Amino acid sequence: MAHGMRSDLTTNYGPPRSDWRATAQRYALLPLRVFLGVTFIYASLDKLTDSAFFKASGAGSIGDQMRGVRDTSAFPELVDLALKSPPGFGYAIAFGELAVGIGTLLGVLARLAAVGGALISLSLWLTVSWATTPYYLGNDLAYLMAWLPLVLAGAAVWSVDSWWRRRRLTA
After folding, report:
1. Is the CB of residue 76 less than 8 Å from the CB of residue 56?
2. Burial of 68 (0-12, 13-18, 19+ CB in 10 A)
3. CA atoms in the 13 A half-sphere facing the CB of 119
4. What single string gives the DSSP state of each residue in 109-131?
5. What is the pLDDT of residues 75-109, one digit of tens each?
């Protein structure tokens, strides 16, 4: 028996084939893309519509949240940077999540959007959920890992990126 990579298991980004494995492989990341896109858009809108979130202090404010995690984060310097302007940091996170969510959901510069999502998740893991024990109870690490397949594969189907790719190939 020969050992090596099975060619029938590799992702085919060309024209769709008729067998169900190829179809399943082409669409395998679509549920993840939809989930992460919708979740990041929702998280952004939740922040943007919360009048208390963008305040430097007070119940539910980004300032109080950051002060609460400062001493338990992996990089307190990162939190200190955010505390220089809590409202500015809050808006940066909210609009970053919105851009990542829209880019991921629509597949517009999907790999770049996934890198942005991974960086947001990484920064939240290293600051907000770093002290969560056991580690698997913190959701930011799971989100970070969920972004990695999209960083590697992009948005092969039902995306603006695939439409652009098809246009370039036929031009």
Report:
1. no
2. exposed
3. 13
4. SHHHHHHHHHHHHHHHHHHTSTT
5. 899 899 999 999 999 999 999 999 999 999 999 99
